[in-house]
């Protein structure tokens, strides 16, 4: 038997055994022994200003590491504070381990401080939720939590660690072992469905590929390139799949997805669900090939003609060997989509290069594209401003674009920036935010300053919840503008309170030098960009 150790130390040892070098939290007494355990085990404890933001940070740390991040929160409001972030991971199938403190087991049902049935609250939005029953079982339960979080389909888990277990001691026969001693085996898909998919693609005249976040999680960018190059397949990317093909790749198309989905004869969807982003599968293509790691996604909204359950890298590697481009290389089809892509740029050229003041959202995207290094990680947190910037900004490398995903959760930006910065991923870090989104967790700019994370927060400030206000006014008239106006605040003045570099931009010609100064400052920065509140009129609200 080993020496007796406090339960918090055992939890920290088990976290470290999973290769996790940082946990994200907001200080709480119920989990104090875990903080001490982390200190002794060399695990960084990064404290944020709200538990929601702490869980967002843990999610982002895990996303860029292709791992499961850890949010460590105290009992009651500490656990409830994570619910939105956990739900975001649940919808996007992102791994996250939430370790929640709780009243001592011995005080159950007696009205202890912050007592709540936390398990019932988290069960509907997690893959696995449990209460650890004893101090000596803490390592086992932590390993189980990681195993569930990372097993396909990935997702969030919740493990409750009652306070008396964390303060008690136990001696173990052996040190904690990681949940995964070896990489998880890849699932290569049913050979019959693979053959069916290859035949459909080979016989197609107008095939198209849509690849999403599964490409990033399965480390499949190389296999994706081999697949689309073998078949000469025009490709669109969404979610964390962005950057899986470089923007200059001849088969990557950015702005003709609507035409492609309607005019294609075969659509191959890889690593993303048929949700609202893909019209719930209601597009004109006659045939559908769907590749996903979660069998529950195959057949939702539309039954595929070839349905492949598997790891994106394994499946695409097999399909790359199986498909073959026709003699003409599908030249006419590629030219048709390139023409549609060029038409989008031509249609919006004036907005992209606009010198108007206040500034157009597309011009902000263009200037960011011009100044950012290809290795910069960009976090998107907002409505209109992020939608506009994402249409113009090119993503050069896999994993270098983070947005909340299909849950549409605002307020992720500062937490994501803390998580990415703590993970040490990318050559730079920029968070593009709306002023509405900034208000949710903007005080975590203080966290960036305290932990010396040189993220640049670019706040697109139109003094409104623009993505709602514009269709609201369009439907109900100016008098119907309710609950969608904000004050034109000077967000950069937070730097006077917390420190960091500040820029305020009102004219388009000021954008590039202000961004360059912020990026060169080498410290956390806020660039407050005054945007035209009516610039995105005519760009339909896409959420309903």
Kindly state the percentage of residues in helix. 25-40%
Structural class: alpha/beta
- Order of strands, main sheet, comes to 3-2-4-5-7-6
Compute the number of helices: 22
From the N-terminal CA to the C-terminal CA, the straight-line distance is: 59 Å
Gross geometry:
globular
Determine the CATH topology of the largest domain. Answer: Rossmann fold
Instruction: Just name the CATH architecture of the largest domain.
Output: 3-Layer(aba) Sandwich
Strand content: 15-25%
Summed over residues and divided by their number, the pLDDT gives a mean of 95
Q: Give the number of DSSP strands.
A: 19
Can you tell me the number of structural domains? 3
CATH class annotation of the largest domain? Alpha Beta
In short:
By secondary structure, the protein is an alpha/beta fold.
Word description of this protein:
The protein is of the alpha/beta class and 544 residues long. It is built from 22 helices and 19 strands. Helix 3 packs across helix 17 (413-423). It starts with a strand and ends in a 14-residue tail after the last strand. The model has no long low-confidence stretch (mean pLDDT 95).
Features:
22 helices, alpha/beta, single chain, 3 domains, Rossmann fold, globular
How do the helices and strands line up, and which of them pair or pack?
Blueprint: E1 5-6, H1 7-17, E2 22-25, H2 32-41, E3 44-47, H3 51-65, E4 69-73, H4 77-80, H5 83-92, E5 96-102, H6 118-122, E6 128-131, H7 138-150, E7 156-162, H8 163-167, E8 169-170, H9 191-203, E9 207-211, H10 214-217, H11 221-231, E10 235-237, H12 257-263, E11 266-270, E12 287-292, E13 306-309, H13 312-322, H14 331-352, H15 361-371, E14 376-381, H16 384-392, E15 401-402, H17 413-423, E16 428-434, H18 435-441, H19 445-450, E17 456-461, H20 466-476, H21 494-498, E18 501-505, H22 508-520, E19 525-530
Parallel strand pairs: 2-3, 2-4, 4-5, 5-7, 6-7, 9-10, 9-11, 11-12, 12-13, 14-15, 14-16, 16-17, 17-19, 18-19
Antiparallel strand pairs: 1-8
